[in-house]
């Protein structure tokens, strides 16, 4: 245990990180209209990084004992309070980075077709990077909006390369329409694209390694195509990842009226609570990230309480006592993400 940790005996309670907003050409304005983010001018607000410890992208705590601290500083100076049982990696070395990157995305336009490397592949491209397994939970979808996930059966590297060059990659992708509440799990190596008209929550390994396979013929305002990483994409594609469909949630007993497990993977677990009556959040020596997907609630803590309007994300350190979620009239839907085991 670090000396600094020993001095900080009392839990600081849940942390409220400031969102980091990103403008990208495919973004829109729904991060503001649906999720309450404070957007400026413009209609290309694409991503809100809610919990981030990735290079210069650092979540900063907005209130309480750690106001002004970056997530990276908390990892370095308060590892035991933040991570609890996960303060060291399975091989015994101290954890030096917050392992999850958590975002809201507004895809007003279609994103490029892409693939992410796994941990082993990532290190060959950038020793400081991680692989990227991710999951999406749809917050809002326009009628007919679609996702692309996984390849059609029997697609091999030659077929994918030829299709990328011919501009016909879409023919090889599994496509399906989505609605609010759908969850899709995208392990590293799964070819994917997010279609236009979708707002989603994204839970992923902390990584920014993306290889673009196909860009739908997009040209920037100067008329230039964006770079395609064809060799890297093909090298990182898992050709056994055939059609990927939304997950089937598994009911969880004894929490809220309706608690479900959406994802239980090597890198993260995602549960969803849909509630109109108060329910407890356990304290079991690990951090949790809560995102309010719809409705609102109050998070009752030891000393005070935190409002959870739609679009709000809080990081609950491992040393927090058990908490209570008190939904407002009309109920709340919360997404809870944490590390497995
Ligand atoms: Zn992705």
From TrEMBL:
InterPro entries: Carb_Metab_Reg_Kinase/Isom, Man6P_isomerase_Firm_short, MPI_cupin_dom, PMI_typeI_cat, RmlC-like_jellyroll, RmlC_Cupin_sf. The keyword Lyase does not apply. Residues 22-125 form the Phosphomannose isomerase type I catalytic domain. GO terms for molecular function: mannose-6-phosphate isomerase activity. Gene3D superfamilies: Jelly Rolls. Residues 261-326 form the Mannose-6-phosphate isomerase cupin domain. It comes from the Bacteria. Keywords: Isomerase, Metal-binding, Zinc. Pfam families: MPI_cupin_dom, PMI_typeI_cat. This is Phosphohexomutase.
């Amino acid at each position: 245990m670090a000396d600094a940790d020993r001095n900080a005996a009392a839990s600081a309670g849940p942390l409220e990180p400031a969102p980091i907003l990103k403008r990208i050409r495919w973004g829109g304005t729904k991060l503001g209209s649906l999720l309450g983010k404070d957007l400026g001018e413009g209609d290309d607000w694409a991503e809100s990084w809610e919990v981030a410890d990735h290079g210069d992208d650092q979540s900063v705590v907005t209130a309480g004992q750690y106001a002004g601290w970056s997530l990276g500083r908390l990892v370095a100076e308060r590892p035991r309070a933040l991570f609890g049982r996960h303060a060291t990696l399975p091989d015994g070395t101290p954890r030096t980075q917050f392992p999850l990157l958590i975002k809201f995305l507004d895809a007003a336009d279609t994103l490029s077709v892409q693939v992410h490397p796994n941990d082993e592949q990532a290190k060959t491209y950038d020793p400081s990077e991680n692989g990227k397994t991710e999951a999406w939970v749809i917050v809002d979808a326009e009628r007919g909006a679609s996702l692309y996930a996984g390849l059609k059966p029997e697609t091999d590297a030659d077929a994918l390369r030829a299709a990328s060059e011919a501009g016909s990659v879409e023919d090889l992708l599994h496509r399906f329409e989505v609605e609010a509440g759908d969850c899709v799990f995208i392990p590293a190596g799964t070819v994917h694209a997010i279609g236009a008209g979708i707002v989603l929550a994204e839970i992923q390994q902390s990584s920014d390694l993306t290889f673009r396979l196909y860009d739908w013929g997009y040209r920037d305002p100067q008329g230039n195509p964006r770079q395609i990483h064809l060799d890297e994409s093909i090298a990182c594609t898992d050709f056994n990842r055939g059609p990927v469909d939304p997950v089937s949630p598994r009911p969880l007993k004894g929490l809220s009226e309706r608690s479900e497990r959406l994802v239980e993977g090597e890198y993260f677990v995602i549960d969803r609570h849909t509630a109109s009556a108060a329910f407890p959040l356990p304290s079991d020596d690990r951090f949790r990230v809560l995102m309010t997907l719809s409705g609102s609630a109050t998070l009752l803590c030891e000393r005070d309480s935190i409002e959870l309007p739609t679009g709000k994300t809080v990081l609950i350190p491992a040393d927090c006592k058990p908490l209570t979620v008190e939904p407002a009239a009309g109920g709340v839907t919360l997404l809870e993400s944490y590390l497995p085991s």
